[in-house]
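In the design runs reported in the main text, the only information available to the sequence generator was the tokenized backbone. The following block is the verbatim input for one such run; it is reproduced so that readers can re-run the procedure and compare outputs position by position.
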């Protein structure tokens, strides 16, 4: 199965991402717009849904309430859910911890700590992928001034869950691919100029691309 992963569109045109070959599914990792709400979100997501067989999204810190509600109603959002895709359990983690910009979907660390505590009590059979708008602390999270701003609760969750892959965004300059213990961590960087392609079967390969 071949999956396109994109993040942090922030209203930018996506036409150049609509003609990639043999894509079975799209993961959108949040910040579809920069707080512009429902109409712009619908425009972007409907273009993706017209171009590719299936599209799943989590919310970023910039998604407005009406946009988040629409993603949920349309069956696109997997915030706080687990779905089976290509033989993998895929967990969705939307929003972010507080930022200096006071954006619409920011949550305190204890919100995520409680979420992860509940998830750790639920056994995940077999292979799993995590979609998170925010990166884990210390991995793909370094700002342009060299400060790590990722989520500490997410880092702890990954170390305990040991999923096969974590895809994240949020920190544009944190683009890259590395490992956190046994988990591959990849930040595709801001779309449409940057994106990732996943090939998933019994194993996972992740490659980062730039236009």
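Verbatim output:
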């Amino acid at each position: 199965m071949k999956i396109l992963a994109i993040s942090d569109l922030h209203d930018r045109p996506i036409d150049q991402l609509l003609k990639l070959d043999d894509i079975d599914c799209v993961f959108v990792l949040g910040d579809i717009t920069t707080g512009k709400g429902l109409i712009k979100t619908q425009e972007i997501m409907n273009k993706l849904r017209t171009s590719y067989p299936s599209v799943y999204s989590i919310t970023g810190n910039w998604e407005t309430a009406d946009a988040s509600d629409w993603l949920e109603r349309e069956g696109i959002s997997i915030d706080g859910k687990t779905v089976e895709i290509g033989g993998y359990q895929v967990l969705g983690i939307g929003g972010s911890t507080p930022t200096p910009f006071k954006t619409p979907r920011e949550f305190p660390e204890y919100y995520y700590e409680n979420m992860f505590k509940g998830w750790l009590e639920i056994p995940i059979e077999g292979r799993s992928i995590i979609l998170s708008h925010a990166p884990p602390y210390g991995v793909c999270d370094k700002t342009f001034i060299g400060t790590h701003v990722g989520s500490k609760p997410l880092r702890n969750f990954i170390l305990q869950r040991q999923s096969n892959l974590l895809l994240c965004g949020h920190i544009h300059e944190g683009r890259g691919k590395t490992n956190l213990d046994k988990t591959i961590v990849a930040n595709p960087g801001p779309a449409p100029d940057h994106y990732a392609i996943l090939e998933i079967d019994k194993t996972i390969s992740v490659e980062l691309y730039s236009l």
